Structure prediction request, 141 residues.
Amino acid sequence: MATVKTTIFEHPEFTDYISGMNDHFTKWRKKTAKQLRSLEAGHKPKELIIDISEALLGHYRGKPLIDHYAVYQHLMDYWSDTMQDDCYSISADGWNAETERIIEKDKNGKSKDKGWVCDLIPKPYIVARYFQKEQAAIEAA
Prediction:
């Protein structure tokens, strides 16, 4: 079975198809990334997902060996799981990625600082970009 899989994956026709599909996706991604980077406060997230999902569906319609609705569904799942919240955050505040302290009260009513959070940019990205030395010191310890 592994030999059959290897034979298929290494066949020139298959590798050309994969390369072509990668190029095809890159074209859609570049156009869409430009659109997403231009979002401003007040944009309409529901209209945005309709625009980009319909563009994706049309972009893959008629491509051989691929179900364009399956590609569309991947985008819609990502929208639901991740992208939707970010788009609504940008719609409300623009590209404002400020951190906030997480303060909780314990059972005695005393406030405890539990760290920080940023809604728009995941904490690991902020740490990697601005706190590399501190993170390296923590990991070394």
About this structure: DSSP finds six helices and two strands in the chain. The mean pLDDT is 91. The first strand starts at residue 100 and ends at 105.
